[in-house]
Amino acid sequence: MLHVENLTKVYAPGESGGGIRATSFHVTAGEFYTLLGPSGCGKTTTLRSVAGLEEPSSGRMTLEDRVIFDSSTGVFVPANQRRLGMVFQSYAVWPHMSVFDNTAFPLRMSRGKRWSNTEIRQRVTHTLETMGLAAFADRSAAQLSGGQQQRLALARALVAEPRLLLLDEPLSNLDALLREQMRSELRRLQKDVGVTAVYVTHDQSEALALSDRIAVMHNGRIAQIGTPQQIYHQPGNAFVATFVGRSNLLRGALLERDKDGNARIATALGPVLCRAPTVTTGLAPGAALIRPEHIVLTAIAGTGDASLNRFRGRVSQVAFLGEATECVVQVGNVEILVRGPAGQYGGSEAVDVFFPPERTLAIAVDEL
Amino acid sequence: MIGRISPPVVILLVLLCAAIVPPFVFLSYSSLHYLDASGAFGAFTFEHFAAIFSSRTFGPMLLNSLVYALGSALLALFIGAAQAWLAERTDASFRQILYVASIVSLGIPYVLYIVAWLLFLGKAGPFNASLQYLFGGTTPYINVYSLGGMIFVEGLLWSPLAFLLLSPVFRNSDASFEEAASVCGAGLLSTLRYVTFRMARPALLALGFLVFIKASESFEVPALVGLPGSTRVLTTAIYQKLTLDIPPDVGSASAFGVMLLVVMAILLQIYSRVAAQTHRYQTVTGKGFRPRVVRLGRWRYAAGALIVTIPFIVVVVPLATILWAALLPYYQPFSMKALPLLGVGNFVQVLNSPSFRGAIVNSLVLGAAAATLVTVLSAIAGWCVARRVAGSRLIDTLAALPLVFPAIVLGLAFLEIFVHGGARIYGSLLSLVVVSVVAYMPYGLRYAQLGVIQIHPELEEAAAIAGARQTGTFFRVVLPLLVPALISCWLFVFLLAVRAVSLLLLLVGPDSQIVAVTLFDFWNNGQIGELAALGCVWTAIMTVFSVAFLIVARRYQLPIA
Fold it and tell me: Beta strands A165-168 and A197-201: pairing type?
């Protein structure tokens, strides 16, 4: 559907926005594809390049097998000929037009098909109905609330059946409750309409909840591409591990690796046994990753000598979060974040920390 | 898309170059060449400059210019800031009067305003007469034809604009800064001193500097107030070279002009640095923003009295003086025995005279034509500059260049162009329109640019994604959203174009008489009755425009200037 190959955009010094370097990915039809990353990572630049609002420095992009950009042949299809839908961060709802006129605009501008007035009326009314905005059709767009403007922006993006729906942090301007509501609505709508969507966000929980696949971006490059489960459970490198979800990262040298995919890493706590499906052999710098919710805390087992992946520590801080409790356990010089069911520990007790080897992952540490 | 300059931008650049480069060329060329009596260029020379620097009057003249500009700036700033604070941050009575008075004063022609003060404060005016009545004596107590008089009139002339420009500064400052100060134990005066005015300081400084620049290039007050008392500044020196010397000493005048240009360029450079600082304390915040109103308590009525007094001095006194003069067949100071002489004879004469009616029509046509052209050009140029299309930096620089020309110097430069360039339009209304467009383009551009900046770029990008072409986007999205800014731009340029004398004084011909210049000639000929009557009629017409301007600007929350 959308193929992006070696896309590079270099900004002149002083210009705002993060550049991108040799970014490649492809989006399949009907997919909800998310570009996730911190601000300045180049995700918005990538999206705007796909939209045709920015001209990349080099690379190639095809949409439905037609080239929309190719630096080697000088092809650049401008934004207004790409037949896309886009929802902007600011919604960009035109305040001087009514809700109806906002929605009808893409149909009136259509180059391929000439829409008659009755067709436009039918189509716009239908789209506004799906968005729950039918009652507001004649109202000025400036009178809508934030959530309604959001839905109007979506209606305008979808009305002309775009080949691709682009969404640039569309939920970031909404308050928390409305954001969750819109999130599930967005997902349902995208599947109902069957449109392919490329979504940009810096919010990892949004990305995990909405996407079929996620491309995590960092410093203008794609750090990892995968399903939400892959991204969360098998982060390809330390950046992805720390950016998506919370994690304990114990750095150290790789000691050994067997053919079943198990590895031992020499961490500050001592050797840690973990799974290593991706790390290559050799004593490359690496880290053991364990999510706070996978750590098992137990009262001191009595004997006192540490067994495999079991370390003795002391609870130093406890935070009650309602559905769970988070505590920081001081093990030697290292602070380990542990998340568990509520009410387990009160604080300042000696405990044993256990990293289940099947839940502990050896990952490469790219020097950032 | 990037690096290629689009055809509209090229056209715009060519137009701007054609309008802006020749004045520089002709002015500097004439300042460096001998000119014969017919005005033809002779040999190259530095003599014009040498003569200026060796003249003994040059030093005092510079000092006069400096003191005059500084004094006017301080006076305007003081009155303006006091009004703005009272109107925006306190619950003083009668606050609305300040707005009404300022707006009315925007429509009063400079000449009329100055003449009113000359009549009021002059040797035989009511002010000196009252002082003589109170304290005895027969000699006048004050001489308005002095540096002090110049500062007084110019300062008052700028105070309404200072007020209008400062009131948003006070309106937009968040009350929590002041509340924080009072929680810390500061009283009203300490809060004012350490917080309110400290935070407004960058804006005050920038505005003061602006008035300083405007006063240094002003011509009307120096000509009408300064020259009779032989207080000369740079701008009036140019005028005298052209009108007193026979044949007109164009070379010397041009040399003066070039020097003024250099001074202006330096001042504007400093100003842009100062103005860039204004945003340092930008305090408008989205959430929970509300400007607090200071409760003055017992002082409320004292402040109210002050609020009534300022507009009384700034607007009512000059207008009343003019009305008095307009109703008398020949001018005499206010007295009971003059009352029976009052009549509307001057008005009848002015309104029946085809030449005066012509001047009114010419002024309106000139203002409307210049405002329309400036607005159209500004809309396109302003969009290019705000959206940083290729070539926009050049547009920005070119369109801002006329700012370095004091009006009288730009008039002189165009006079030379029309005389030497063989242009047949000299003295025609068309020539006045061209000159006005060049002179007021920087203001128009500024307006349009601010208007475009308020339009979120994503609104345009959304149109592109929806399939609209560049032109479609401009006409269907940008222009409708820009309309309020453009209306207010039009009115502002209109008011500027019809108000000033100095720009067009050297250029009007018999068929292109305009009101502002006619008023100036009346004063020089001593026709005070006609002057006052024409001035009253014109002020009434202009008030309609200035009120419209204020309504549009407030309705759409646009900056006043």
Answer: parallel
